[in-house]
Amino acid sequence: MKMVTAIIKPFKLDDVREALSEIGVKGITATEVKGFGRQKGHTELYRGAEYAVDFLPKIKLEIAIDDDMVERVVEGVINAARTGKIGDGKIFVGPLEQAVRIRTGESGPESL
């Protein structure tokens, strides 16, 4: 099993969710987060005062999947989240040692 973590722009969430549903992903966890990379934030005006916004709003997706779905999920996220502009996000793939469905007690790939 693998855990795919994707950081995307907030307005791309619905597109990514639809793309992953079409692939057969059964569940996604989405969290509103803030961060920066090469974008380095920006400045904004508020009531006449200029201030720096160092952390930009992003969405963090966590997707637990079976090993054979990794490439399809990564491609699906890339195709749905890409705008071609800086700040499109990142995808991280790591091992997932164990998963347990609390309701039934199922563990391993069956719990996903």
Structural notes for this entry:
The protein is 21% helix and 37% strand. With 112 residues, it is an alpha+beta fold. It starts with a strand and ends in a 17-residue tail after the last strand. The protein is elongated and about 55 Å long. The chain has one domain: Alpha-Beta Plaits, CATH 3.30.70.120. Helix 1 packs antiparallel against helix 2. The strands form 2 sheets. The chain has a 4-stranded antiparallel beta sheet, covered by helices on one side.
SSE inventory with pairings:
Elements: E1 2-8, H1 13-23, E2 29-35, E3 42-46, E4 49-53, E5 56-65, H2 70-81, E6 89-95
Antiparallel strand pairs: 1-5, 1-6, 2-5, 3-4
Helix pairs in contact: 1-2
Parts with pLDDT < 50 across at least 5 consecutive residues: none
CATH T-level topology: Alpha-Beta Plaits
Estimate the strand proportion.
Answer: 35-45%
- H/E element sequence: EHEEEEHE
Question: What class would the helix/strand composition place it in?
Answer: alpha+beta
CATH architecture call:
2-Layer Sandwich
What is the percent of helical residues?
Answer: 10-25%
CATH C-level label? Alpha Beta
Strand order of the largest sheet: 2-5-1-6
Note the overall shape: elongated
Terminal-residue CA separation: 9 Å
Helix tally equals: 2
Computed Rg: 17 Å
Instruction: Give the domain tally.
Output: 1
Kindly state the mean pLDDT as a whole number?
A: 90
Tell me the total number of β-strands. Answer: 6
Main β-sheet, in a few words?
Answer: 4 strands, antiparallel
